[in-house]
Design brief:
- The protein has 214 residues and is an alpha/beta fold.
- Helix content is 54%, strand content 11%.
- The protein has a 5-stranded parallel beta sheet with strand order 2-3-1-4-5, sandwiched between helices.
- α1 crosses α9.
- The relative contact order is 0.21.
Length: 214
């Protein structure tokens, strides 16, 4: 079973995806980490995240980098959003994501274009969203817990910039797949959001099982 989870930054899709993977005993890939690794590598190499040539070179990062906690920083998240607009970068990372998704038994992947580009034939597609203000509050609290310098207005402005880049890029823009189930987490606790996601997966897979011949 392949579960594709898409959505904007700070919508809760990462936490939900991890819990879906745990609940259904499936391997999990946070595809956003791949783009964060590219952004981080561009910076370390002294390149420009807005330059497709620099970003493409950075796609050759060592897989061990994905375990680096620095990739989770807000600065690296901004770099990831910038490198992700380059078609060359998306193409370079596509195979790694598709290979993970199509392993025996399936997987859970979260990102921006999983249900539309990476796994258009996924068994279940969820699009997790929330209002920009709610997402900014979550990111604000997360950064405070990590002891990072934090300003709510700056965070909200950054989220709006990322949304603009992600939804308007020419290649693989952020948008719900036509057959995705929408999960709005604006007014949900994380536990409630997880339970709704599990219910949506069960409903989708149960419907398919009911249609299968005995």
């Amino acid at each position: 079973m392949i579960i594709a989870v898409d959505g904007p930054t700070a919508s809760g899709k990462g936490t939900i995806s991890k819990q879906l993977a745990k609940h259904f005993a499936l391997p999990f890939l946070d595809t956003g980490l791949l783009y964060r690794a590219v952004g981080w590598t561009v910076r370390e190499q002294g390149g420009d995240a807005d330059n497709p040539a620099d970003a493409l070179v950075a796609c050759r990062f060592d897989s061990a980098l994905l375990d680096n906690p620095d990739l989770r920083s807000e600065v690296v998240g901004g770099l990831a959003s910038r490198v992700s607009v380059h078609p060359e970068v998306r193409m370079a990372l596509d195979k790694r994501q598709k290979d993970f998704a199509n392993q025996p038994g399936g997987a859970v992947l979260d990102g921006r274009d999983i249900g539309t580009v990476i796994t258009p034939n996924a068994d279940v597609k969820l699009f997790v969203t929330a209002s920009p203000e709610a997402r900014a509050v979550r990111r604000f609290e997360e950064m405070k817990r990590r002891g990072e310098p934090v300003n709510f207005d700056d965070i909200l402005a950054d989220i709006l910039r990322r949304d603009e880049r992600d939804t308007n890029r020419a290649t693989a823009p952020l948008k719900p797949a036509k057959d995705a189930d929408l999960l709005d987490t604006t007014d949900l606790t994380i536990d409630a959001a997880i339970q709704q996601a599990i219910a949506l997966v069960n409903a989708k897979t149960s419907g398919r099982r009911d249609k299968d011949p005995a």
